[in-house]
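Hi Q.,

Before the meeting this afternoon, I wanted you to have the calcium ion prediction in hand. No need to reply - just skim if you have a minute. The sequence and ligand are here:
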Amino acid sequence: MDMFEGVGRRLDEKGGTLVSIGQHSLNGDGTFTDVAFVNGADRVEDGRGLSIFDYDRDGQLDILIRNFRQPAQLLQNRGGTGHWLQFRLVGVRSNRDAVGARIRVRTATGLQSRAVTAGSAYLSGSSLVQHFGLGAATRVGTVEIDWPSGSHTQLRDLAADRRYTVVEGVDVALGR
Ligand SMILES: [Ca+2]
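Predicted structure with the ligand bound:
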């Protein structure tokens, strides 16, 4: 999955059509293909909030959907066999949640980059833990972190399939 959308409508709209919620996979030409049906994630509901996080810490990102006047729904990710890496950043000079930090992970197959953000979705937000899919790679050569304060952390040769906690100013990743 490359994109997940959950869409609702305004409370004052009595008519109108609920928009389908689903997953999309990025094609090579910049377009997307709706893959919600094959993944069992297609539904027609009145979406309000969406959060992406790894609730059971198995290295597969899960999705929590909050719909209008309906219980929350958890879509557990049961697919995927690739390796992964997760980072929880703790700011010291920066804000404690490290919002605004950028993490770059370099493997043999290329460079990935993620920024820590807050309020990533309407009436909701995703986890502050940053997730990187690694495919077949079992180790990561270099990880670089740019903190909002301007400080920089570089980590080397980390084992995959772990969540690391990195404290600003301490260039050691504590994994478990
Ligand atoms: Ca999971």
